[in-house]
Amino acid sequence: MITKRIVPCLDVRNGRVVKGVNFSGLSDVSDPVSLGRYYSENGADELVFYDITASSEGRALFTDVLKEVASTIFIPLTVGGGINTLADFERVLAAGADKVSVNSGAIRNPLLIEEAAKRYGDQCVVLSVDAKRVDGGYHVFSKGGREDTGMDALEWIRRCEGMGAGEIVLNSIDTDGVKKGFDLQMLRAVCDIANVPVIASGGAGSAADFVTLFREIPEVDAGLAASIFHFGEVAIGDLKRALHENGVNVRLI
User: Fold this and answer.
1) Using CA atoms, how far apart are residues 95 and 89, in angstroms rounded to an integer?
2) Please, which of 56, 227, 243, 250 could form a disulfide with 143 given CB 3.0 to 4.6 Å?
């Protein structure tokens, strides 16, 4: 049985971890270096680092903070934000990333996924999809959830997987930060068409939400969350014990 992963997410702006609701109303949380170290030492299976304003501000991802985070953790690190070229891949991998997450950069240039997969391997390329319900379907949003591309999210995921994306992070804008549970309907739709690992993001408010996620959609490989971990509402160790007690296979600490 495949072990389910628990993945904290550091949304970083101006060198600080922030968190909002429905991708807006951001508030300061913590220092990413100390927070990353804490998660690495307390049972997280992986860590995601997003420079959340790099794309909307049209700049490269800040690598100084990233290097500090990477040097203090001992779990796989996925990095995204402002990834637009192979040079950006090279830069963040050199700074300590294990996998690189692409979103707006791939929307502008879908061939980036194919080129990166050929150079670094499919396992290195993570497609991050910010999706929201629009007119009865799921649309892809870019620039940190600010801009509706008009693209169908399921068609986009299928296309990018075909070009070499080795993992999908599905961020539901509808449930982001609301803490009422993962977007099971959207996740089911994605898992039905994806043949690579899918990470659920957006909506976790309790350990029970993770139990429901893995029970209802066993195809999901990992659950990602931010605020419930950042603010101490759910400890990763307690979450994993709850999952284990409910028959979900996890790496216990």
Assistant:
1) 10
2) 56
Helix (H) or strand (E) run with residue 229 in it? helix 227-230
What pLDDT sits at residue 26?
A: 46
Report the distance separating Cα 55 and Cα 58, nearest Å. Answer: 5
**18-40 pLDDT, tens digit each:** 765 554 544 445 788 999 999 99
Domain that holds residue 173: 5-245
Residue 98 belongs to domain with CATH number:
3.20.20.70
Angle, helices 236-245 vs 207-216, to 10°: value is 40
pLDDT tens digits, 109-166: 999 999 999 999 999 999 999 999 999 999 999 877 889 999 999 999 999 999 999 9
Active-site option among 45, 88, 130, 209: 130
Predicted TM-score of the model (pTM):
0.91
pLDDT in tens, 80-90: 988 999 999 99
Dihedral angle sign, alpha carbons of residues 77, 117, 52, 5 = negative
Q: Does 221 participate in catalysis according to the annotation?
A: no
Angle at 179 between CA 243 and CA 158, to 5 degrees: 80
Measured CA to CA, the distance from residue 18 to residue 177 in angstroms comes to 12
Whether 253 is in a domain gets the answer no
Residue 250 domain-assigned (yes or no)? no
Mean pLDDT of the chain: 91
Residue type, 215: R
The total of structural domains in the chain comes to: 1
